[in-house]
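Appendix B. Raw example, untouched.
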Amino acid sequence: MRQLNSWQNAIFLTGATLMVVGAGASLPGWTVAPYLYAIGAVGFTSMQMLQRYEGPSLTIRRLRRIMLLSDILFLLSAVLMFASQGNVFHIDHLTYLQYVYNKWVVTLLIAAILQLYTTHRISHELEKEVKKL
């Protein structure tokens, strides 16, 4: 896997921290929470997309695609956080409550589970690849 330089690593870690703070700040209902989360999600996902794998392992390539799906879900969670602050789609109130309001939690949970799984499996597969050499 291509490693990040020190600036990219700092952006990656700052983005992850802002995502956690933004998601946690939404619990008491702070209006700044979606902004914190969105900035963090853009930083985190963009740096994670820069980490490329150029090796021959199809398993790691598959896991990277799953990780990119989780990145998209992180960004979708940011959009849904903003949408949960008000009916920005101008749809029926009942439909809004049923399909949009606080559904960012579901996409965030799915993205986090996929992220944990792929991170663990990629590190395991990379260790196996190094042992083969």
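End of appendix B.
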